[in-house]
Specification:
binds 3-hydroxy-3-methylglutaryl-coenzyme A; 12 helices; alpha/beta; binds magnesium ion
Length: about 300
């Protein structure tokens, strides 16, 4: 592996849009995803097959996956919480899915209406069926550095869950700082602990920028050998079941950091900036990427 190569997993169409209160049309979402793909992104989380009662914005997931799945050389993945979601994703032609659980019992309950143990049973069912369709399964662990309901999270809990998901068959484990409370030393400590159980090349980081620490945390993660980073164009997003959580770190800001550090992401920064401004205008919201704002001036 080229240690200077970094993979960006763009989660804007899913994590970014899931919290938007006004319903966005399928055409706008598909145009957005197409623009993202034109920036060089190869990994785009396009939708989630969750209950539309829980997250109305994602009710059109099948139309989104159908609309994008014919495009070559880009993986459009979908988040699935249970077998029902997986079956709907497969029917729509999905090529990769992501599952999610949490390091915090209370967050898991609020987000998926079940305990961590039950979420793992659901994940086992998902992986078994996904395997029969040769669909790779990515795994998320949420609240790895703090929970809005429970506070601090023991790193040992994150280590245990991450290694369990990896052993169950997730090809990559994305560690989510869902409410953005982490700071670099804690990130280093956590990654050091998790990487003793899961090889670092199978780990990703997923920072929300609520406290403005995301780029510093990514810098720490890069130093720990992490080469897969989740981000969201224009810093879109927030989790509907994490009070006070803001958007993911902005893809444009991550790419600017990577360029400055001599890492290769293969992404076209001016095109990312244009895409971020476009979607921010469509949503009538401020662009949360500092790089995008600076580059427009
Ligand atoms: P529940 O209410 O316990 O589910 O929700 P249920 O099994 O009792 O079913 C209730 C109804 O939902 C039924 O419909 C089911 O058919 C339907 P009814 O008969 O009442 O008409 N249903 C579904 N419909 C569509 N797709 C499905 C599905 N499953 C059941 N997959 C459930 C349990 C897990 C479904 C619910 O809690 C849920 O959808 N939760 C997802 C919440 C969510 O999307 N959160 C945000 C994503 S996670 C995140 O953002 C964190 C991450 O970014 C990392 C980080 O930052 O930390 C990944
Ligand atoms: Mg998230």
């Amino acid at each position: 592996m080229n240690s200077k190569k970094v993979k960006i997993v763009e989660v804007g169409p899913r994590d970014g849009l899931q919290n938007e209160p006004a319903l966005i049309s399928v055409n706008t979402k598909l145009a957005f995803i197409e623009m993202l793909a034109s920036t060089g992104l190869k990994q785009i989380e396009a939708a989630s097959f969750v209950s539309p009662r829980w997250v109305p914005q994602m009710a059109d997931a099948a139309q989104i996956i159908r609309g994008v799945s014919s495009t070559a050389d880009v993986v459009y993945s979908a988040l699935v919480p249970n077998l029902k979601g997986l079956e709907m994703a497969i029917a729509a032609g999905v090529k990769e899915v992501a599952i999610f659980t949490a390091a915090s019992e209370q967050f898991c309950q609020k987000n998926t209406n079940c305990s961590i143990a039950v979420s793992l049973q659901r994940i086992a069912e998902i992986i078994a069926v996904a395997n029969t369709h040769n669909i790779p399964v990515r795994g998320y662990v949420s609240t790895v550095l703090g929970c809005p309901y429970q506070g601090d999270i023991a790193p040992s809990q994150v280590v245990a869950l991450s290694s369990q998901l990896f052993e169950m068959g997730c090809f990559e484990i994305s560690l989510g700082d869902t409410i953005g409370v982490g700071t670099p030393d804690r990130v280093k400590y956590l990654l050091d602990a998790v990487a003793r159980e899961v090889p670092v090349e199978h780990l990703a980081v997923h920072f929300h920028d609520t406290y403005g620490q995301a780029l510093a945390n990514i810098y720490a993660a890069l130093q720990q050998g992490i080469r897969t980073i989740d981000s969201s164009i224009a810093g879109l997003g927030g989790c509907p079941y994490a009070t006070g959580a803001s958007g993911n770190v902005a893809t444009e800001d991550v790419v600017y950091l990577l360029q400055g550090l001599g890492f290769e992401s293969g992404l076209d920064l001016p095109k990312l900036v244009a895409t971020g401004h476009w979607i921010s205008e469509q949503l009538n919201r401020a662009n949360h990427s500092k790089v995008a704002v600076a580059m427009r001036q």
